[in-house]
Design brief:
Blueprint (H helix, E strand, L loop, with lengths): L3 E4 L5 E4 L11 H10 L3 H37 L4 H12 L12 H14 L11 E4 L3 E6 L5 H4 L39 H15 L5 E3 L8 E6 L8 H4 L8
């Protein structure tokens, strides 16, 4: 029997507490499918809301884990090692997550990133909603906040956890200005992967960024991604800020 409760001993965390205990191993998606087929609308809606909590825990754990690893590397070996680490990680991710780059249309690429950012729990309420629109020379995605780096720079909307860049976490930010932090200091090491993977490494490989990140110093401001329709219309500043040069 499906049962969802708030567990006060876990700080009010919402859990499935199904009975008998063997039913805890049934996928929430299988449960949801069965409820929809049975026409049990209220229970299905309750489970939909719970699923947001269910996959928030693991999502946040792994992004926090990544940020902690980056901070350890910076504090132990120097923050100049961060781009080396990201390059190594990207070489592994390219075998799976990014193997389609260079073979898909721009629209397919935008659809791909939109899927990723929905899964990243972007936007108000961490439900995966954000703005997308087309302009004359580019497409724009706006996240308020981004579900990973942006979320970690703010007090948690759902859980009230303080920003990871402050007490008690003190996760690292750039102490100096680097090309891989868009020429800024104070950029969370986690956020730098957008500059390294999608701008610097993309320009090195193909002469053009996959997308451009409009990183904001104010953590309460939305973050934007720009997907330009052609290389010619990309402002030169989006090359020079990362130490790259626009060719042609």
């Amino acid at each position: 029997m499906l049962k969802i409760e708030k567990i006060e001993s876990m700080g009010g965390r919402v859990l499935r507490t199904d009975e008998p205990i063997e039913e805890l191993g049934i996928s929430s998606y299988d449960r949801l499918r069965d409820l929809v087929k049975a026409g049990k609308t209220e229970e299905a809606l309750q489970l939909i809301d719970y699923i947001q909590h269910e996959f928030k825990m693991l999502h946040d754990l792994y992004t926090d884990w990544t940020y902690a690893d980056l901070t350890y590397v910076a504090e132990t070996y120097g923050e100049e090692e961060i781009p080396k680490l990201f390059r190594y990680v990207k070489s592994k991710l390219d075998l799976v997550a990014y193997k389609g780059y260079g073979k898909v249309s721009q629209l397919e690429l935008i659809q791909y990133f939109a899927e990723a950012m929905r899964a990243h729990r972007c936007g108000p309420g961490e439900t995966g909603s954000f703005k997308v629109w087309e302009e004359k020379d580019r497409y724009v995605m706006e996240f308020n906040p981004c579900g990973s780096g942006g979320r970690m720079r703010r007090t948690g909307e759902l859980d009230g956890i303080p920003p990871r860049t402050g007490e008690p976490f003190n996760q690292g930010v750039t102490k100096k200005c680097y090309p891989w932090s868009w020429g800024k200091k104070g950029v969370p090491y986690y956020c730098a992967h957008c500059a390294i993977w999608h701008e610097i490494m993309a320009i090195e490989k193909a002469g053009v960024p996959i997308k451009v990140t409009d990183y904001q110093d104010d953590p309460n401001a939305p973050c934007r991604w720009y997907f330009y329709k052609s290389k010619e219309v990309i402002p030169e500043e989006f090359y020079t800020r990362t130490g790259m040069k626009k060719e042609g």
